[in-house]
């Protein structure tokens, strides 16, 4: 028992993580039990580098000019995608960074589903793998339903396509065509589109393959770009 308590404090605090989720509920961004539950299960502290505050509602640097998104953005995207993250479904997380959202996706689609994180910085893929290993999603990575890959996310990841849910965690000047192609009819993509100022766009593909687009919010994300461009101004 003592051992478990020590581990509990060493690896963050589920109590504080729950308080963050409670705050997001009161703030109105966490609206459903499903999203609250997954955010309570995946402790944000495991995904934020030491020396930064995991439980405040802001993005935090994770190195390589990348950030872990703010909790309210994670919550917003989970709420927008929750119906497309049912058990057995396939989800793609482009620009997986810390791995936080990929881990949430994996918990929601479960062992019969697939959650794929694509990230073009190899060091971040190593870090996200270690983060997940300490989290409640560890078993899903071990059994292969959750995986991270070093690749250019603008190309998607055809191996596990088509996807019910596609999330892009970096801002694209326009929607990359391969991502649209890898979206399943009946599926949904959430992607920040724009350069300096961006709209969080929600793209729904209907059964006949046609798409509808709406803007959900104004947002600020790091750019979806080439590895060399991203590392240039570091
Ligand atoms: N959802 C992540 C966000 C990380 S920030 C989180 O909350 O942790 C956006 C990430 O996109 C960065 O890690 C960056 O390295 C990555 N990225 C940017 N352009 C990319 C590209 N072309 N292919 C893959 N990853 C990319």
Automatic annotation (TrEMBL):
Top-level taxon in the UniProt lineage: Eukaryota
Enzyme class label: transferase
Alphabetized UniProt keyword annotations: Methyltransferase, S-adenosyl-L-methionine, Transferase
Enzyme Commission numbers on file: 2.1.1.77
GO molecular function, one term: protein-L-isoaspartate (D-aspartate) O-methyltransferase activity
SUPFAM superfamilies with a match to the protein in the record: S-adenosyl-L-methionine-dependent methyltransferases
Record carries keyword Methyltransferase: yes
Pfam families in the cross-refs: PCMT
Catalytic activity: [protein]-L-isoaspartate + S-adenosyl-L-methionine = [protein]-L-isoaspartate alpha-methyl ester + S-adenosyl-L-homocysteine
GO biological process: methylation; protein repair
Gene3D superfamilies linked: Vaccinia Virus protein VP39
Protein family per UniProt: Belongs to the methyltransferase superfamily. L-isoaspartyl/D-aspartyl protein methyltransferase family.
The protein's name in its UniProt record: Protein-L-isoaspartate O-methyltransferase
